[in-house]
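Supplementary notes for students who missed Thursday's class. We covered one full example, reproduced here. Read the sequence, then the structure, then the short commentary at the end.
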Amino acid sequence: SRDADGFIYFSGRKKERIRRRGENISAWDIEKIVGSHPHIAECAALGHPSPVGEDDVRLVVVPAPGAQIEPRTLMQWLESALPQMMVPRYIELVDQLPRTPSNKVEKYLLISKGLSATAWDREKEGYRLKGERARKSPSSTQAPAQT
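Structure (token representation):
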């Protein structure tokens, strides 16, 4: 966040920061905004290794009781609620988040398990954010062969 003098302060735990395309992103900032959605009981924002370096944002969501969440519809809301750099690439819907005895979310367990088979990937689904260009595959960034 930025104060009245223009100084920028990083919110949340340092070890929970997400590094995406040169930006430091606070998982706490994402969770605070996403947690305001009426159909979300709780969520966890995590970094997930990107094939092009650094991290992509992964969002693990527990729907509110009785709520039905469709990842594409949630993505539309996220795109309007979050700065583009914070919009997740992956959305996973789960029944509950793992917790410590003191009730803190055990993010390291979510990270160590990796993406579930049911995780929604906006790039694989062809969902592009407004103004976002298609990501080139690592092999397509090589210079053409000289003839």
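Commentary. Residues 9-14, 139-144 have pLDDT under 50 and may be disordered. Residues 48 and 112 are 10 Å apart (CA to CA). If anything here is unclear, bring it to office hours.
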